[in-house]
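The authors assume throughout that readers already know how a fold can be written as discrete tokens. A single example would do more here than another paragraph of explanation. An entry of this sort, consisting of the sequence and the corresponding backbone structure tokens, reads as follows:
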Amino acid sequence: MNNSFLTGLSKFLALGLGVVLLLSGCGKKEESSAQDDAIVITCGMVAQEHEACKKGVELWQAKTGKKVKVLPAPNGSNERLTLFQQHLAAGSSDIDIYQVDVVWPGVLVNHLEDLSPYLTAERRAKYIPSLLNNNKVEGKLVALPWFANVGILYYRKDLLEKYHLPVPQTWDDIEQMSKKIIEGEKKAGDDKLWGYVFQGKAYEGLTCNAIEWISSFKNGGTIVEKNGHVSVNNPDAIKILDQIAAWVGTISPQGVLNYEQEDCRGVFQLGQAIFMRNWPYAWHPLNSSDSAVSGKVGITLLPKGGKDGKSSGTIGGWNLAVSKYSKKKADAIDLVLFLTDEPELKRRAIESGYFPPMHTLFKDPQVLAINPLMKIMLPVMTTATPRPSAQTGSKYSQVSSVFWNGVYSTLSKQGSAEENLKEVQEKLNLISQNGTKWYR
């Protein structure tokens, strides 16, 4: 393997360990030169993902007789993407398989193998359509779903029951219920309770939240539509962003403007918020023995944008993709097919709690016995909304940055949503030449 790549890789170890797989043949001679070919799989849940991936690889090794070595890789998503882009741009054959974030297929499409020919119709039908379709770019299926993620709403069951309130259905419900419960709890002596916490920092997490707000309205759109048209400056988007901005400092803490997902979880877990937008991972720590809200938490779809809107949780999660430049393409494809097939996904769901990308497993009795949350999560997964990465391709990072900065300006009272979204629309039209040249 290229020494400069390994050197660059080692510099990121302080950010956390991912998983890098080195695929080789059998025998001592091959084993000593295992670094000539590599399968790279970076991870979000460092230690847990490392072990879950390692177990899957060991099962594949036992089946095929192939050798795989596990090495560390950068854990930070931005750093990881930058490193992978540099490696792929050089056309290097060192890496065989990449773990790809859901917003990367359009960014990396020109460097990844089309996996469509290797999927049977039977297997294709098992995947949650939105997760599989997310990985289709320019007619090619450039990655297979490995584990799923989606934005969901957590709520305090005990407080809703105390005030005789139903599970919220709309964003207006969130506002009205928050005000009622906060007022009641203040009278009871709790002046530290907030209504709604979310990822409000100026980063990718805010893009996810804001897409959920906007696309939950009938005509809100998804920033950039599938045909490449920039749609972000519209009445529904303006309305909801101004509404959320008014929450900051009232039903949401001022500090929400610096919150990432763990900040939100911490506040909610301390019992200081009624509602929280987060990813499914938070369910287990919220119900741990040392959690102040253990047993008091409910989970549901994110609110709709009015009666004619829809719930719109953003798709998250990770996929596996094969490099076009791999010299062990057949083996690499075989390993990806193994790691993303139903038996392995079931093992990961049971042993490590990962949400599988196949809808069949959400109904599996063994999976449900281990994690009852699976039954609740299936409708959330099937209604999930992708970020506009497929249509914006290599420009997605720019698109997201322009968008989250415009949203952040609105939330922090630096201009109205109308002013800021007009500017976002103009910038995105310049980047894409009015939606005509996203890929060039």
Summary: The chain has 20 helices and twelve strands. The radius of gyration is 22 Å. Residues 46-64 form the longest helix (19 residues).
